[in-house]
Amino acid sequence: DVKVTQSSRYLVKRTGEKVFLECVQDMDHENMFWYRQDPGLGLRLIYFSYDVKMKEKGDIPEGYSVSREKKERFSLILESASTNQTSMYLCASDEGTYGYTFGSGTRLTVV
Amino acid sequence: EDQVTQSPEALRLQEGESSSLNCSYTVSGLRGLFWYRQDPGKGPEFLFTLYSAGEEKEKERLKATLTKKESFLHITAPKPEDSATYLCAVQAYTGRRALTFGSGTRLQVQP
């Protein structure tokens, strides 16, 4: 089974901090995605990547950036954390046919 | 723009009381429609992919069906362990490969 591992289950950060959320997949998938999930809003796409060093903006990229230096690792960066970025962050990967495999999520609280 | 609307937002059933969840979608050429199950505090778990109108898939007490405008997730004789949020998502042939998700249906099955 494909495994997608997110480095932290829970994080508490201060406003203005630079925050790194890490995601690693173990099945050589080309495609990786970052979503955030908020009550009533569902999953919203932040950024995605089709290959190493390639990235594309999703629907809500403002305040975020990403890095994909190796195929298995896709990092989400909050340049200067704000309270409205408090959310559940979900990483996913896929190989193009059967839909995503998700990580367990990182619940980020910005205080 | 691809859109997915799920109804109802929440559903409470008695154990054994069958029902259906609805997913209405608008997409520019459907490549696939996906159903996921999400337990509290966890990432979504893949259930089904449907590719063309008329297709049906089953897994234990769940059956997913697809028409040109909507999909249904039928739950037959549910048990308390079926309690979860059920998410629907679509992927288009054209444009970006990322999935567009609905807001989900929170299902509670009472013993």
Task: Characterise this structure.
By secondary structure, chain A is mainly β. In chain A, 0% of the residues lie in helices and 53% in strands. Chain A has no helices and twelve strands. In chain A, strands 2, 5, 6, 7, 10, 11 and 12 form a seven-stranded mixed β-sheet that branches. Chain A is globular and about 40 Å long. Chain B is mainly beta and 111 residues long. In chain B, a hairpin with a 2-residue loop joins β6 and β7. In chain B, the strands form two sheets. In chain B, strands 2, 4, 5, 9, 10 and 11 form a six-stranded mixed β-sheet that branches. Chain B has a five-stranded antiparallel β-sheet with strand order 1-3-8-7-6, with no helix packed on it. The interface between A and B is medium-sized, with 26 and 22 residues.
How is the topology of this model organized?
The complex is a heterodimer of chains A (111) and B (111).
Chain A: E1 4-6, E2 10-13, E3 19-21, E4 23-25, E5 31-38, E6 42-49, E7 56-57, E8 64-70, E9 73-78, E10 87-94, E11 101-102, E12 106-110
Parallel strand pairs in A: 2-12
Antiparallel strand pairs in A: 1-4, 3-9, 5-6, 5-10, 6-7, 8-9, 10-11, 10-12
Chain B: E1 3-7, E2 10-14, E3 19-26, E4 30-38, E5 45-50, E6 56-59, E7 62-66, E8 70-75, E9 84-92, E10 100-101, E11 105-110
Parallel strand pairs in B: 2-11
Antiparallel strand pairs in B: 1-3, 3-8, 4-5, 4-9, 6-7, 7-8, 9-10, 9-11
Question: Helix fraction of chain A?
Answer: under 10%
Helix content of chain B: under 10%
Pattern of helices and strands of chain A? EEEEEEEEEEEE
Which residues of chain A form runs of ≥5 with pLDDT under 50? none
Termini separation of chain B comes to 41 Å
Radius of gyration of chain B: 14 Å
Question: Greatest interface and its residue counts?
Answer: A-B, 26 and 22 residues
Q: Flag low-confidence runs of chain B.
A: none
> What general form of chain B does the structure show?
globular
Shape of chain A: globular
Major pleated sheet of chain A: 7 strands, mixed
What fraction strand of chain B?
over 45%
How many E strands of chain B? 11
Quaternary structure state of the chains depicted: heterodimer
**Mean pLDDT across all amino acids of chain B:** 94
Terminal Cα separation of chain A, in Å? 37 Å
Query: How much beta of chain A, percentage-wise?
Result: over 45%
The count of strands of chain A amounts to 12
Assign the structural class of chain A, choosing from mainly alpha, mainly beta, alpha/beta, alpha+beta, or little secondary structure: mainly beta
Number of helices of chain A: 0
The secondary-structure element order of chain B is EEEEEEEEEEE
